[in-house]
Amino acid sequence: MSSAWITTRAWLLMLPLLIVMVAVVGWPMVDTVRLSFTDTRLVGTGGEFVGFANYTKLLTSRAFLGALENTALFAVFSVAAEMTLGVLAALLLDQQFRGRAFVRALMILPWALPTVVNAMLWRLIYNPEYGALNSLLTQLGILSEYRSWLGEPGAALWAIVAADCWKNFPLVALIALAALQAVPRDIKAAAIVDDAGPFARFRFVLWPYLAGPLTIALVLRTIEAFKVFDIIWVMTRGGPVNSTRTLSILVYQEAFSFQRAGSGASLALIVTLIVTVFAAFYIAMMRRSGSRA
Amino acid sequence: MSTLEIDAVTKRFGALETLKGVDITLESGEFLVLLGPSGCGKSTLLNIIAGLLEPSGGDIRIDGRSMRKVHPKNRDIAMVFQSYALYPNLSVARNIGFGLEMRKVPKAEREVAIRKAAEILQIEPLLERKPAELSGGQRQRVAIGRALVRDPKVFLFDEPLSNLDAKLRTEMRTELKRLHQKLKATIVYVTHDQVEAMTLATRIAVMREGQVEQIGTPREIYDNPASIYVAGFMGSPPMNLVEGRISDDGTRFQAEGGGCDFPTPANAIGGLTPGRTVIAGFRPEQLFPTPPAEAKAVTMEVEVVEATGAETLVIGHIGEQTIIASVKPDQAPEPGETVRLNFAPGNIRWFDPESGRALPNE
Lengths: 293, 362
Prior knowledge:
Order of helices and strands of chain B: EEEHEEEHHHEHEHEEHHEEEEEEEEEE
CATH architecture of the largest domain in chain A: Orthogonal Bundle
Distance between the termini of chain A: 36 Å
Shape of chain A: globular
CATH topology of the largest domain in chain B: Rossmann fold
Number of helices of chain A: 12
CATH superfamily of the largest domain in chain A: MetI-like
CATH class of the largest domain in chain A: Mainly Alpha
Shape of chain B: elongated
Helix content of chain A: over 70%
Structural class of chain A: mainly alpha
Helix content of chain B: 10-25%
Radius of gyration of chain A: 24 Å
Number of strands of chain B: 20
Number of domains of chain B: 2
Oligomer: heterodimer
Largest sheet of chain B: 6 strands, mixed
CATH topology of the largest domain in chain A: MetI-like fold
Number of domains of chain A: 2
Strand order of the largest sheet of chain B: 6-7-8-3-9-10
Strand content of chain B: 25-35%
Strand content of chain A: under 5%
């Protein structure tokens, strides 16, 4: 077989997939760009070309700035908490103890739950009338009366951060645990003989092996957090008073609730741009750790 | 410089008995090599001396002080690992000084110690580098440096040379020997390489299935192996072991299947009773070609001739049994030839085929 034929055949075999990809991903993306420069509405007549009007309007709107702030707060705090909890959990699960395999398997559970199920679960926990959190806090005497965790603008975002953290820290823990298991036994033994304390052991023995995988986990989780939609949609739909409205929620509202397909498209592209910056960072990280190995 | 006593140490992992009672006493300045194949318990024993493993029974004493329940950091030992075990994000200098840093030794004092160790090991130009920028041999020097600065009572080496290529291994071996002669340190060294054991040790403990099969100076182990196991393990190529029978008048040894027939030594050897089956052990270098006119002990049909440089290995069979002779290159026969060999002066070791133990030499 000539190499030319091998190449041709490879392309032929990939062709059906390529056609589907162009149809369901490529074309919509191009069309989104086109839409973003029009005032198209979801229902009704086709839109007129309006140039950058959608963008300028959006970037200066309070809705956008509010959503950007919410997204940033959500991303920074949920990712920070997930990283911290994940590493702590991994350090614990790396110890020798009875039932370790069971606990390791158990820890995956929150992450394995579908986001919608997790969101429903936490809505029950936060329920203002019979929620477990209210019951727990009042019984402990921390709270004097039941609160509506998802109904108060000052609390809702943090309640969602906690729910998201519970779901996603196991992923970080899993990655960190895998990294910890790659630490050579000899180095751990050397540190024991060298009289290194727990902090020195973490810093000089474990950290060099954790840093690379954790960076990747950090970037991955940040990208995910910036795109957050489903957990918020199920728990609060962006409310109360837009206090949990993130960029993705805003895109949805703009395009489908307010039926402004044109400006929804431009907003979607802005979110895509932000995520692309993180993704580029991620790829750079992967390349760096790849060349090091 | 310190003494080390290993007193009836046992170790069990569940149902598996890895160490079945090991007793070794080391004088100050001795270089003990624990030698044996993988799984013989030598690394387990080293880890017990270090305190990284608890013995199931028995005790370790350093300078007479029991190490029971003493943490590794308080045993005043230093360990060098097979994989070097350097801290990857610390410079060579900090790697070497790490143990001192953790023990809160003042910086100035630390630096003097690091300089001194680096000088001994000739790695001064590397002090600011990271481990990833070093070759295998350089990393091993750093690992040894880390042990040196501690000036411990006992040095423990866990197969430190087995990750190095052959040439470097030989160099580092010489260097370790030089280091030991200079420092007069007490060293326990684990290896499966009998050449390392022969060259480095003041005493070798050959281990087998969790027990010490034989302990002695390299010369004793080489010349007078206590068992077929030790005889087969030491020496490259190993000792020839020929099974045969003592003649009915008790004066000659005759190999099973012929090809080897010689008088038993004049001085009475205990256990060489007439008609008994025994195994005769002799080193390849004890054999030399002999002219047809003279008496011969061995008639060998040559199969393979291997030139190694200084000597040539002649591999062939006598009857059914394969033996190896090591001869001068100019005396080497051709494959297919039948050669007559005799023994150079020196002991022939006799073994009991049943127990595998050597027969007493008297």
